[in-house]
Design goal:
Number of domains: 4
Shape: elongated
Structural class: alpha+beta
Radius of gyration: 55 Å
Mean pLDDT: 83
Distance between the termini: 182 Å
Helix content: 40-55%
């Protein structure tokens, strides 16, 4: 009874140790500690079946070591083979049948108690074994321990389930928050149509969703080594007041720069987490970045590439300045998703912009002139048709002015196409200043422009008057000097006017055609003139078309013929002849070059005609030489068209013709215009030198009417300058023409060139030329142009006098 009474405190203390903690491991630790102290044990060990240890790698029905007291004794039992064998036998029996047993080994005794269905308690003692009464007293305590273990495991399972549910709820709430943010991003890119609005919206949504302090967008440009901030969202409640620089050099951040730049060629999205708190392998060791972050009080930072471009990409920077933040994988996945949506939208915007640019370019090419950026013929005709329909419905007159620049070809040929283009652009600018906002000025091509004057009047007379006033103003504006190649040049326009509508049956093509016809009449009137369309003008235009048609067969029909005008020196001696082309039309009679050469130039027929002239003139001279009536030092002058001279095969063509005819090339003198001389100067010089070596001479025809440069003339293999008849005919009454002629003669003498005057018709003109030093002449004063029979008789008579 006494011994039983003495066990009560032990039982009580052991029982109390079991109830001090609901957690399994702390409860067992307290129980083992009390056992060791109250029962004078060396150690106490707990083994549990695998399914109760919480170790996912353990087998459910295998006993596993769980804990010991003191902890230093935990490996002792694992090395005892016999004990392990006993544990194995326990695992195969029913725990309810297992009774406490005692084992002795190496001066230690072990008392083993089954703990319900959970495992075993092993008590190790080095002194005498426990008394049977004590063992019996421990059995209900161990049974209570089993109950407590069960309660503890249930509690832990409950806590685990609660923790899992709470974690799931947190994850779901976060996922819902992220989903709402993605929805907002989707709505943003669906509604907004420009980059800035989308980027600003994205920055705000990211900042609010992730509770950030700052969200910045940088344009990282590796070509100029600069990162420039383009956008920033700031949480006014939490962000610090430190303002980061607008831009900084990329070279400042070597490691970061290399990490980012390595991705540019692959154009892949990359996340770089700040080295302050990165838990991943993307940790950046960048001292410069560290210093900058300290200066800007940035405690956590995440970078995400947003959109690539040719020189780099845009960088999204998410900043935390109020606390250090560890970026979780769920957050980076969310950020990636946002960036994907926004990048896709920005790329779509870029494609739309490119498409709009392409559409605008196509429209520009379709409706506007490339050189002057004025509306072209297509756009003009569209507007002209609308204006015509409106005028017919409302009985309101509009007008078009058809402009062509006089002698523009001389500028183009003399100064080159770049100067000609500059002139056309300046003309376009001047025309735009003349018209009203409702009017249109268009370029049809070349040097042709059209002004559409909209809705002038319901009176044809008043509309014509208004159009003539605008035309006169236009003429004056375009006649002002142009500065080209550091020199001033004057260009005048010829302007044709046509009203619209002309009747309910009139078309836009008709109106334009009539204005064009009026413009040609302005040119025929001496240029620098204005003409309003009259129905009779169309007759002349139709005649031109008829001539163009007939000209195509002029050689085959043998309708061309040559006349020859003699050339003389100051002693009245014949020194040569000039071949002059005529067209003997079967219905119209004899047509001079002034009436058809421009048509031949426009249609390209001049190439065939030019070869025909040289060949037939050479054949005629060969006949005269064979008849011994052509002076030995006389020359044959033949005019050359600019289009003809620019042909790549022109040199071979001249040589082939003269070789086939069989005359000395030194007899032939090709008369070229100043336009040919000044156009494509290098190519011109090369061709002239080649033909000069062959023996052909060169004369500049109509000298003084173009824009020749003295510096270029000195480089050309010329033999003669010809004074234009427009100067010669007024030298006795116009001091300006007299001065020009005298200057040309002095220039020719200075350059060592012959000078010949054409169009000499009076004794006074000849006397002036002789006094000024001109020694060669041609004109009616000496002889008119003669046909082949007449010039042959003339040469025969001249030969008999020699």
């Amino acid at each position: 009874m006494k011994e039983a009474f003495s066990l009560i405190p032990i039982q009580h203390e052991l029982a109390m140790s079991i109830g001090r903690d609901i957690r399994l491991k702390p409860m067992l630790a307290e129980f083992m500690k009390v056992c060791v102290h109250r029962l004078s044990l060396r150690s106490c060990h707990i083994y549990l079946l695998g399914k109760f240890t919480g170790d996912s790698c353990s087998e459910n029905d295998k006993l596993q070591y769980f804990t010991s007291f003191p902890a230093t004794q935990k490996k002792t039992l694992h090395q005892q083979t016999f004990f392990s064998n006993w544990l194995a036998s326990y695992e195969t029996s029913s725990p309810s049948d297992t009774q406490p047993i005692k084992l002795d080994h190496d001066q230690s005794s072990y008392h083993i108690f089954p703990v319900g269905d959970f495992g075993l308690v092993i008590l190790e003692r080095t002194s005498k074994v426990l008394a049977n009464e004590l063992i019996a007293a421990l059995v209900p305590i161990i049974e209570r321990l089993a109950v407590s273990c069960n309660a503890s495991l249930e509690h832990e399972r409950t806590l685990s389930e609660i923790s899992k549910r709470e974690a799931l709820e947190i994850a779901l709430r976060e996922q819902l928050k992220f989903s709402k943010a993605i929805t907002k991003i989707a709505e943003l890119v669906a509604v907004e149509t420009n980059d800035k609005a989308v980027i600003n919206g994205m920055s705000r949504i990211l900042g609010e969703t992730l509770e950030l302090d700052l969200v910045s967008i940088y344009d990282v440009n590796f070509s100029i080594d600069i990162a420039r901030r383009t956008n920033e969202w700031r949480n006014l409640d939490t962000a610090n007041t430190v303002i980061a620089p607008e831009q900084f050099p990329l070279s400042l951040f070597r490691a970061t720069n290399q990490a980012l730049q390595s991705k540019i060629h692959a154009k892949k999205s990359v996340i770089l987490v700040s080295h302050f708190d990165a838990p991943f392998h993307t940790l950046l060791e960048d001292g410069a970045a560290d210093l900058l972050h300290n200066d800007l009080q940035i405690k956590s930072l995440l970078w995400q590439t947003l959109l690539h471009h040719n020189e780099g990409f845009h960088l999204l920077a998410l900043k935390q300045t109020s606390y250090k933040r560890i970026w979780r994988q769920e957050e980076t996945v969310f950020i990636n998703s946002v960036v994907h949506h926004v990048s896709t939208a920005l790329k779509k915007f870029e494609l739309i912009r490119e498409r709009k640019k392409a559409d605008a370019r196509i429209r520009q090419m379709a409706y506007y002139d490339d050189l002057t950026v004025l509306p072209n013929r297509t756009m003009l005709m569209d507007q002209l048709n609308r204006e015509l329909s409106f005028g017919i419905r409302h009985k309101l007159y509009s007008a078009i002015l058809f402009l062509d620049l006089d002698r523009f070809k001389n500028i183009n040929d003399s100064l080159g196409h770049s100067a000609g283009d500059a002139l056309l652009r300046e003309v376009a600018l001047r025309l735009k200043k003349v018209i009203r906002s409702e009017d249109i000025v268009a370029r049809l091509g070349g040097d042709e422009f059209v002004i559409l004057l909209s809705q002038l009047s319901n009176s044809a007379l008043l509309a014509t008057k208004d159009a003539e006033q605008v035309a006169e103003k236009t003429r004056q504006v375009l006649s002002e000097p142009y500065k080209l190649l550091d020199h001033e040049y004057h260009v005048t326009p010829s302007i044709g006017i046509a009203l619209l509508p002309e009747g309910e049956e009139s078309t836009a093509d008709d109106i334009l055609k009539h204005a064009d016809t009026a413009m040609y009449h302005a040119k025929a009137a001496g240029r620098d003139a204005i003409k309003a369309y009259q129905p009779a003008m169309q007759i002349a235009a139709d005649e031109r078309l008829s001539l163009e048609k007939d000209l195509r067969l002029v050689i085959e029909r043998k309708e061309l013929l040559l006349q020859y005008q003699p050339q003389f020196n100051q002693n009245g001696i014949l020194i040569g002849v000039e071949a002059l082309l005529r067209w003997q039309h079967p219905e119209r009679g004899l047509i001079t070059p002034d009436d058809f050469i421009s048509i031949a130039e426009d249609t390209g027929q001049i190439l065939r005609i030019g070869d025909w002239v040289l060949e037939n003139a050479a054949i005629q001279v060969k006949k005269w030489i064979d008849l011994r009536i052509f002076p030995g030092n006389a020359t044959l002058a033949v005019n050359v068209s600019p289009k003809q001279f620019r042909q790549n095969n022109y040199i071979d063509s001249v040589k082939n013709i003269l070789n086939e005819v069989g005359i000395n090339p030194k007899i032939v003198k090709l008369e070229i215009t100043e336009g040919i001389v000044m156009s494509e100067i290098d190519n011109t010089i090369s061709k002239m030198h080649s033909l000069r070596r062959y023996g052909v001479g060169f004369s500049v025809d109509d000298f003084g009417t173009g824009y020749s440069s003295l510096a270029y003339l000195k480089t050309l293999p010329l033999s003669q300058l010809k004074i234009d008849k427009s100067f010669v005919q007024d030298i006795t009454c116009d001091p300006n023409d007299a001065t020009i002629v005298e200057t040309i003669i002095i220039m020719a003498n200075t350059l060592g060139l012959d000078v010949i005057a054409e169009g000499v018709e009076t004794q006074d003109e000849l006397r002036f030329l002789v006094e000024k030093g001109c020694k060669k002449y041609q004109g009616y004063y000496f002889s008119r142009a003669l046909d082949s029979q007449g010039i042959t008789l003339f040469l025969q008579a001249t030969a008999e006098k020699r």
